[in-house]
Design brief:
The complex is a heterodimer of chains A (300) and B (345). Chain A has 300 residues and is an alpha/beta fold. Helix content of chain A is 31%, strand content 9%. Chain A folds into two domains: 2-150, no CATH class; 168-294. Chain A has helices spanning 9-30, 94-105, 134-138, 173-185, 192-196, 221-234, 244-248, 255-270; strands at residues 35-43, 50-55, 87-92, 114-118, 149-150. Chain B has 345 residues and is α+β, with helices and mostly antiparallel strands. Chain B has two domains: 2-200, no CATH class; 219-338, no CATH class. Helices cover 29% and strands 23% of the residues of chain B. In chain B, the strands form two sheets. An eight-stranded mixed beta sheet of chain B has the order 3-2-6-7-8-9-1-10. Chain B has a four-stranded antiparallel beta sheet with strand order 5-4-12-11, with no helix packed on it. In chain B, helix 7 (227-233) packs across helix 9 (289-308). Classes of the chains: A alpha/beta (300), B alpha+beta (345). At the A-B interface, strand 2, helix 5 and helix 7 of A face helix 8 and strand 11 of B.
C-alpha cells in the first residue's frame, strides 16, 4: 500500500481505530428512520485511492474507510442534495469542515438537515508520490464547527508548514505570466475543477449561459484564461484550500497554486485569512474605503 | 499482412523526419513533465514517446478535433463573404496508434461516413495512413481483449509495428500501408529468425474478463432501477469520461461573431453537461443528473449496438483512469447486472 510509506505503524493503528468508530457511528445514524445516507469514503477498486461513498444502510456503513488517502471532500455533494427530505450524514476532515461552514453560511444547505461527524486529520498522503500532500503540509487552520460527533479533539494538525514549489512570488511579472500561460494552455475545459469544487454551487454558471453569452466557446488560450480567472475570483475568500480542483484535473493544471495565490492576496491586501474559519463577512461582500487599490495605481 | 523488415528503435526519429518532408507526421510525443504523452505533429528533432504510456486524449482527436472551424464569414457594406475552412492541407501518417483507439475509429465511421457523409471527417480519414504499435497492454486498466479487439494486429491499421528487442518488426496490411512501406525501406533490414519468432508470438496483457453484457431481462428492465441513483450518487458530472473516450463523438455547433466577421465551428460536447439537451425554448428534457449518467451508459451499451451492431466501448479503460472517482464502464455494467443492494457507483 502506498500510504505505508509515510504513516508510521503506530499512527496506522490509530487510523484503524478511528475507522472502526466511523463505521459504528455511521451505522447508528443510518438506523434512524429519517436518515437518507451517510457520505464518507470507500477504497477505489484498485485499492490505491479512496472515493466518496454514499452508505444507505448500516450494512453498507461497513464499506466506509478512514485513512490518509481520504482526499475527496464529501461536503461538496451537499448543495445538490439540499432539496432532499430527510437527514444526511457526512464525515468531514478539517478542510471539508471549512467548506461545510461556508456552505451553511451561504445558505446552500441547512445545518438542521445534517448529521456531521468531525474527523481529526493528521495530514493526507499523495497516492502518486507517497509523500504528504502539499495542501496538508501547508494546512495550519484550526477547525471550529458544531459537530454532532467527533472522532477526537479537532485540533490544528501539527505539521511542518512548508510551501511546495514553484514559488510564484519569487518570479517576475513576466515569468509569472509565462508560467500561467503555459499552465492554463493545458486546460481542455472539461470543467472537472468546477464540478468538483464545493464552492461552485451556482444553479447556472456563467459558462453555461447562452443568453446573454458571457464567454465564447472557442477554447483558445484567451478563453481558458478567462474561465480560470473568473472562477478564481469568484472563489477569492471562499476557497478553503481542499485542492480537489487540482486533484480532479485530468491535465495536471496547477490550480492549487492559483488558489493559493488568491488566499495569499486576500490575506496581504484585505487581512482576510482562511475561508470557513471566521464568521467575518465574506471577503467579496465587504467594501471599505481603506481597501488597497493597486490595480488603478492608487497605492501599492 | 506482409513482413517488410526490421527497424531499429534508434532509427525511428530519423525515419519520421524524412517522411515529414512528404507527409504530415503525427506521433505520441511527451507532454508536460509527468511522463504524459500526447498525439501531435512531429517536427524534426523531436523525441517520440513510443511505449507503455497511453495518450490521455485518444486518436479520435486527429480526425475529430476538439474544436474545428467550419467556415469564416465577413460582411462589408454590400457584400457578405463566406469562406469554407480546409480540414487538412497535406496527406498524413499517424505513428504508434493503439489497437483500442484504431478500433474506435471504425465505430465513429459508422456515424460520420453514413449518409449524410461528414466531408471534413471523411477527408481526414482517407488522407491519413495509420501505423499501429502492437500493444502489450499499457496498464492495469486495459481490457480491449474483453470487447473483441486484437491489440497486436488491430483491424483498421495500415501498417503494424511489433516491438522486438531494440526495434520493431514492420508489417504492412493495406495498400495504403504498402505505399508508406516504400518510404520506410531505407531504414529496414531483413529480420532475423528470433526477431520473426518474437513478433509472431507477441501477446498482450489486456484483461479479457470485463463483462459489458446486459442485466438479466435486458437493459430495458433496469431503465427505472434505483441502481442508477447509486450509479450517479458520487459522479460529479464533469464529463471527463466523454472527453477521454475514444468512441464518444458528440459535438455542438457554435457561431461566434467578432466585429463584422466571425466563424462557425463545431466543438466536442458531452452528454454529462446540463446544456447538452437544453432546447432553445428553455426546456431541458434531461434535467436530472441520474438521467444523464444513465444516458451515457445506455448509449454505449444499448443504443449504439442497436443502431450499429457493436458496443461503443473499446476497452481502453481511460474513463476509469481519468474519472476523479475512478469509476469505469466495466464497474457500472457489473453493478447494473448485480443490482445488489451494495452498489454505489
Amino acid at each position: 500500500m502506498f500510504h505505508a510509506i509515510r504513516t508510521p505503524g503506530r499512527m496506522r493503528d490509530q487510523l484503524k481505530d478511528m475507522q472502526t468508530r466511523l463505521r459504528e457511528i455511521a451505522a447508528a445514524f443510518l438506523e434512524r428512520p429519517d436518515a437518507l445516507f451517510f457520505i464518507g469514503w470507500e477504497m477505489t477498486p484498485d485499492e490505491k485511492e479512496t472515493r466518496p461513498f454514499f452508505a444507505r444502510n448500516p450494512r453498507q456503513a461497513q464499506r466506509l474507510v478512514w485513512n490518509d488517502l481520504c482526499h475527496p471532500n464529501p461536503a461538496s455533494y451537499l448543495p445538490r442534495l439540499r432539496d432532499r427530505e430527510g437527514m444526511i450524514g457526512v464525515a468531514v476532515k478539517g478542510c471539508d469542515a471549512r467548506a461545510l461552514r461556508e456552505l451553511i453560511r451561504a445558505n446552500q444547505i441547512e445545518r438542521k438537515n445534517l448529521f456531521v461527524l468531525g474527523i481529526p486529520c493528521t495530514g493526507l498522503v499523495d497516492p502518486n508520490t507517497g509523500a504528504i500532500a502539499s495542501r496538508c503540509a501547508e494546512c495550519q487552520y484550526p477547525v471550529d464547527f458544531d459537530y454532532d460527533e467527533t472522532l477526537g479533539p479537532m485540533e490544528t494538525p501539527a505539521l511542518t508548514v512548508e510551501r511546495s514549489a514553484p514559488d510564484l512570488d519569487a518570479m517576475s511579472l513576466q515569468q509569472r505570466r509565462a508560467f500561467w500561460k503555459q499552465e492554463l494552455d493545458k486546460c481542455i475545459r472539461c470543467d472537472a475543477c468546477r464540478k468538483i469544487c464545493y464552492g461552485c454551487y451556482c444553479p447556472e454558471c456563467i459558462f453555461e449561459m447562452s443568453d446573454p453569452k458571457w464567454a465564447t466557446n472557442r477554447g483558445d488560450l484567451a478563453d481558458k484564461i478567462f474561465y480560470h480567472a473568473v472562477r478564481a475570483y469568484h472563489l477569492a475568500g471562499r476557497c478553503v484550500g481542499c485542492d480537489e480542483c487540482a486533484r480532479a484535473c485530468p491535465m495536471g493544471v496547477r490550480l492549487d497554486l492559483l488558489n493559493r495565490s488568491l488566499r495569499d492576496h486576500a490575506k496581504e491586501m484585505f487581512s482576510f485569512d482562511g475561508a470557513g474559519i471566521t464568521d467575518e463577512k465574506p471577503l467579496l461582500r465587504t467594501f471599505s474605503t481603506e481597501d488597497p487599490d493597486p490595480f488603478f495605481g492608487g497605492d501599492e | 499482412m506482409t513482413v517488410i523488415g526490421y527497424m531499429k528503435r534508434s532509427a525511428l526519429e530519423g525515419v519520421l523526419g524524412d517522411i515529414s518532408d512528404k507527409l504530415e507526421v503525427i506521433a505520441p510525443l511527451p507532454s508536460g513533465d509527468k511522463g504524459a504523452v500526447e498525439l501531435r505533429r512531429f517536427e524534426k528533432g523531436a523525441q517520440v514517446s513510443i511505449g507503455p504510456v497511453k495518450p490521455m486524449l485518444p486518436l479520435k482527436t486527429i480526425f475529430l478535433p476538439p474544436v474545428e472551424q467550419i467556415f469564416r464569414f465577413s460582411k462589408s457594406e454590400n457584400e457578405t463573404t463566406v469562406t469554407a475552412s480546409t480540414p487538412i492541407t497535406r496527406d498524413r501518417v499517424v505513428f504508434g496508434a493503439l489497437g483500442c483507439d484504431i478500433a474506435a475509429l471504425a465505430l465513429i465511421d459508422e456515424v460520420f461516413l453514413r449518409e449524410p457523409v461528414d466531408e471534413a471527417y471523411r477527408e481526414r480519414r482517407t488522407r491519413t495512413t495509420i501505423v499501429a504499435l502492437a500493444c502489450e497492454g499499457q496498464g492495469p486498466e486495459c481490457f480491449c481483449a474483453s470487447v473483441g479487439i486484437d491489440p497486436v494486429r488491430p483491424g483498421g491499421a495500415d501498417v503494424v509495428m511489433i516491438p522486438v528487442k531494440d526495434g520493431f518488426i514492420v508489417e504492412t496490411i493495406t495498400k495504403k500501408g504498402e505505399q508508406l512501406g516504400t518510404m520506410l525501406q531505407g531504414a529496414l533490414r531483413d529480420p532475423t529468425g528470433p526477431q520473426k519468432k518474437t513478433a509472431r508470438s507477441f501477446t498482450s496483457t489486456s484483461r479479457s474478463d470485463v463483462d459489458l453484457s446486459a442485466p438479466a431481462g435486458g437493459w430495458s428492465a433496469v431503465w427505472e432501477s434505483e441502481a442508477w441513483e447509486d450509479a450517479s450518487a458520487r459522479c460529479i458530472g464533469c464529463g471527463i469520461c466523454t472527453v477521454v473516450c475514444p468512441t464518444c463523438h458528440c459535438f455542438d455547433v457554435h457561431d461566434e461573431r467578432h466585429g463584422n466577421g466571425g466563424e462557425r465551428f463545431r466543438k466536442w460536447d458531452s452528454c454529462m453537461a446540463v446544456n447538452f439537451t437544453m432546447m432553445a425554448h428553455g426546456e431541458n428534457p434531461r434535467p436530472q443528473h441520474r438521467a444523464r449518467v444513465r444516458q451515457r451508459y445506455m448509449h454505449k451499451l444499448v443504443y449504439f449496438p442497436e443502431n450499429h451492431g457493436a458496443v461503443a466501448c473499446v476497452g481502453c479503460g481511460r474513463c476509469a483512469v481519468a474519472c476523479p472517482n475512478r469509476t469505469g464502464i466495466g464497474e457500472v455494467a457489473d453493478r447494473m447486472r448485480e443490482r445488489e443492494e451494495d452498489s454505489n457507483e
